[in-house]
Amino acid sequence: MDPLKTTSLSARAQEAIMQIIEGMDLAQDNKLPREELLASQLGVSRTTIRQALNNLAAEGVVSRRQGKGTFVNVDSIGIRVTFSPCMELMQAIRNSGFEPSVRLLSAHAADESSGFSSGRYSMDDVRRMLELEAGDRLIEHDKVFFADGEPCAFCRDYFGASVAGGEAGLDELERYDDSLYRFVYNRSGRRVEWDKVEIDVAAPDDLPAAFTSQTPRGASRPLLCIRSVNYDQDSRPVVCAVEYVDTSVIRYNLVRQKAVDYQRQ
């Protein structure tokens, strides 16, 4: 394997380690090579390898056992759609075995007298969560996602007009159906890196009309509801979002580490 040549070494090292894992016969041996061997093989420092392995451990892909080494969590390899790291809906649909597509429904100034989707928050709450300046308009951005042509998810994003590049950016956004995060990055240089989420269930009567109008027979089953605040590389809030996901299409999985106090009697 060629030495890694990139400014994002730990991320690329993580990708390279995943390639190594994919080439392993895990039925025979699930132990990874030592850190110093991986560092030599990939042409990076042990510090970079350690960070990459710690990231994989946080995702549940590997487990690190002091004095024994790093082992692949075999059961995690078959997971195709994860909560952490969180993938975008188009990729989640593709990984679920369907052909994804998306339709931009609207991008306009939000009605600040209404609530944040299902009414959990007011628009004043949204402005506070986004830390918007007084003169910064709040923008509402709706998309519906399809799996093999059938609607399976709806996303409503809120963000300040300033991160979209002002009026010129908003004009372009009305015709832009690619990733909102890439659009924001290209316009403002702010890169979404993590989010804080609330997970709920939405009954058919609670779903936005913008979504139910896209379904030929209307929504007939509860959907997973994910409310999130997305933060940039400086941990500043960028986008508030609410997603409604049909879990018969997209099945999320999460490998969780347990925090059990075995010493307490």
Automatic annotation (TrEMBL):
Pfam families: GntR (PF00392), UTRA (PF07702). InterPro entries: Bact_HTH_transcr_reg, Chorismate_lyase_/UTRA_dom_sf, Tscrpt_reg_HTH_GntR, UTRA, WH-like_DNA-bd_sf, WH_DNA-bd_sf. Keywords: DNA-binding, Transcription, Transcription regulation. Residues 7-75 form the HTH gntR-type domain. One of its GO terms (biological process) is negative regulation of DNA-templated transcription. GO terms for molecular function: DNA binding; DNA-binding transcription factor activity. SUPFAM superfamilies: Chorismate lyase-like (SSF64288), Winged helix' DNA-binding domain (SSF46785). This is GntR family transcriptional regulator.
